[in-house]
């Protein structure tokens, strides 16, 4: 579980981030909006003011026109013009129109602000209603003063004008007085713009002022009383409009057609042209000022409340998201998770309890199907693995047998091979021995041959001796006879011959001895000769036999050599066989190890799926247990065997120095009781 | 868990693929022949490789060169023992080459019984392997003891391989190994496993108690054996040695052979051409001068 955030948090975090971003982005936008708002609002206001102003002026002009035209058609007016004397005429008007004038003054509500001015057709003033009698109330020449009156003379049509006067704008409506098609003069209704100002309702933060064009200004009103900016006189100030440099610049460059927007701090101002009359010349410029501080503040506070509402709304949405998330997602997921945990803990048979038809329900359905197929797979894997286990265990036993057999065979073959080599060496030894013997026999034969020769020579010599002895024997015989004779002679010689007789007797005795010795010698020489002759023939025999032996030994050497070759060939063959057998033994061992490995892996697989419950409410472990019981005892013993062997390697460490002979203490056998064995 | 298995399998694969190089073989063969007498000509390379494979697997070493480094490294005396365990050929059988046992029974023992004052017959089974030879001797001697009162015997078995010594010590064999032993003798001298499937036999304690085992390297300069023996079996050991070493070993063994004591060699072994204090009695049977 790396990600510890819940789904709710996961939803909240991006949403919050987005909202935060929105807020961050909204601020400048709102600021811009505010500014724009202020401008548009001010513009609208300015437009209104201008329209209202123009309308008011227009209406005033209209009123003035109406009043003037009302007077123009009055019988008394016409009558007055028919009076030739100006003063009489003036007098007539004053008296005759007095009630009318009062009536209009009341009707229009203008009171004394309503002024009427009658002109003659030769552009002279006839009567000024607002002047006291004799106080310049008529008769003066107007030709130099205003074009409008001249225009009326020329066009004989009514005219409305506006112009600046001392007391502000002067609204004029001039109507021609025509009687029977004859132009008599004109009548002018006049009132001032101050009226307009009061009529236009402005708020505290609004202001309106008018700048008259110098050239249109009624000079008589006294230009010097006003400051000027470029073409304009600053008049009709209201509540201290600040004529700041921006406004002055704007005035200087104003084109007198469109509305011009000026912003100075919180104050926005609009310049707009004021026409003499509709379609007439621009006679002044209106300036509508608007202090935006207040609306800016109100917009701001509006925005603030909006923001608060938005935030509250967002929090509510968050809450809803979290709650909905919990209800619609987290809760079901928790339920599903619980089920999955049971399943992942090994109970593949567990039924998932979430049954709604929503997406999660679909998911659960799919999962259930998946688990069902996993269950199937597990069952078949389990079965296959069981088979695999049995097979690999069987393979293990057999291959252990094979391995054992192979290594025994290998040892036997190696032993045979070594024996053969030894035999070959032995034969070689025999060959060399035989060769040596043959040489010795040969030498002996040579010696015997030599001996034979000597014996033969000896025989010859003996024969010679024998012959010589015969001579000696003859001589002895004769000597004997002689001695006999001599003794006979000496006996006859008496005392005298007595001594001689003794000698003769001695001689006779010697001769007899000699003879018997000679006979003895002859006897033995002849027997010596015979045996020597025998020996000679026997030695010849021996030599022949020795030659035979030598020949036979030679044959033995040849045969043995052949035998050795044969043995060597067999040894070679066995050595080949040995190689293969040794290799086979190793391979068999490999096989045994591999199959052990296989059995181990299958066991590991079984173990790793054994924690799952996937068929008949039975875990694999129990199934395995059954298998094992079925298997019987063979397996356990096999395991023990392996254990013993490894134990031997690791525990049995005779500490020996192989250069000082033996020393070993195998200790007590771990099998020092014979409980597992019984008598045959 | 699964990962381990996979690694192990690939380790096994690389182990099966490993080859013993010529230089490593030279190193090993020189060492083995020099220290233990066992001849290792180049023809034995395949054999040595396949026998050492067991060690590589046991140690989880993937190449023979690494194994040689390990075996010849420091603190490796233990590994050398294991190496010799697998390198030695331990072929043996009960009643192997029976003429020797007949000769012992018919010639040596009666003569000994008649002449010995102690009547305690001492046998050395030199190169006893897994004990079949000493236990065969024990059976024959035991039989003799049954007929000849106050005859006693003891048997000393030595070998270089600790694995076979352990087997000899335990005296447990597969049933098939004692096929050659007569039923009568089996009944007298062997026990069989109670569990049917095991098919094991064990030599009876009486015979086991007559035997003693020790690890001995025939190539050692001195054997440290103090006893003198009436009979030495040294069969099918010297076939693995060259002639010089054969002569040396027989001479050394004879140091512990009583004068007039007998000496048995394996069927293909002989003393022709070597100088030993032995008299030929009949093939493979000799007597100390
Ligand atoms: C093939 S077995 C012979 C067993 C028994 N003597 C027989 O003939 O049935 C040879 C035994 O000699 C042992 N061997 C080989 N070299 C040896 C050495 N240098 N020192 C002691 N024993 C050795 C081996 O461990 C092996 O068990």
Short précis:
By secondary structure, chain A is α+β, with helices and mostly antiparallel strands. Helix content of chain A is 66%, strand content 13%.
Characterize the structure shown:
The complex is a heterodimer of chains A (680) and B (289). By secondary structure, chain A is of the alpha+beta class. Helix content of chain A is 66%, strand content 13%. Chain A folds into 2 domains: 25-296, PAS domain (Beta-Lactamase), CATH 3.30.450; 361-610, Methyl-accepting chemotaxis protein (Helix Hairpins). In chain A, the strands form 3 sheets. Chain A has a 6-stranded antiparallel β-sheet with strand order 7-8-6-11-10-9. In chain A, strands 2-1-5-4-3 form a 5-stranded antiparallel β-sheet, sandwiched between helices. Chain A has a two-stranded antiparallel ribbon with strand order 12-13. By secondary structure, chain B is of the alpha/beta class. Chain B folds into 2 domains: 3-87, Chemotaxis Receptor Methyltransferase Cher, domain 1; 98-288, Vaccinia Virus protein VP39 (Rossmann fold). Chain B has helices at residues 2-17, 22-36, 45-59, 64-72, 77-87, 99-115, 132-147, 162-170, 183-189, 205-210, 243-254, and strands spanning 120-126, 152-159, 172-174, 190-193, 200-203, 211-215, 229-234, 257-265, 278-282, 285-288. In chain B, strand 4 (190-193) and strand 5 form a beta hairpin. In chain B, helix 3 packs across helix 5. The longest helix of chain B has 17 residues, at 99-115. Classes of the chains: A alpha+beta (680), B alpha/beta (289). Chains A and B meet through helix 8, helix 9, helix 11 and strand 14 of A and helix 1, helix 3, helix 5, helix 8 and helix 9 of B. Strand 14 (677-679) of chain A pairs antiparallel with strand 4 of chain B. The structure holds S-adenosylmethionine (SAM).
